[in-house]
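Workshop exercise sheet. Pairs work together: one partner reads the sequence aloud, the other fills in the structure field after running the prediction. Swap roles for the next sheet.
Pair: D.N. / O.F.
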Amino acid sequence: MAKRGKKYQQVAELIDPDMEYTIEEACDLVKKTSTASFDESVDIDLRLGVDPRHADQMVRGTVSLPHGSGKSVRILALVNEAKQDEAKEAGADYVGLDEYVEKIEGGWADVDIIIATPDVMGKIGRLGRQLGPRGLMPNPKSGTVTMDVAAAVKEFKAGKMDFRVDKAGILHTTIGKASFDASDLRENLRSFLQVIMKMRPASAKGIYIKSAFLSTTMGPSIPISRSSITSI
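Structure field:
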């Protein structure tokens, strides 16, 4: 087992291993567990009672956090020339089409989100092998395939996030920064959980959210009680 540093051990003692915390308690406590010299992300990990191998149990979508995620996202807009000025004015970091398709085929993927218009998906489809494993492939369900490029760019820059359950049934995402007020973290977390609860697949049986943990980038995990989640 890896040996933890002194700071980690000190903040870990703040967490009762036999206790599950409410959303309010967890958001207050997670700020106390941040000891890094940088502004750590605050992450939520959910273990869902779904089988992602079945298409009707794939939990995937987007959420717009009330206070944003605190992350600076790099956006690539893959659009035809007619839409390029629109994308640039909206704040996209990279804008183009053929030249970026070639770069991606060559291994480049130094972005966080790729937005595309429906009319260029024929060219982008062959990039699935490169973009799929990175979670970057544009998809209508995540709001990244749209004709309203400007609106999509602005929404993702403002904090809209794409999420997707992994093959093990784990959903991991960032809901803010350690520098956020605890009240802002609570509102962000509640907004995210409300979206997840509404997306419960009809075919998923038994307990939907099996466990939930809140943590900073370098800090210990704080278990959140399921009753606190289901009561929101």
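Discussion prompt: The radius of gyration is 19 Å. What would you look at next?
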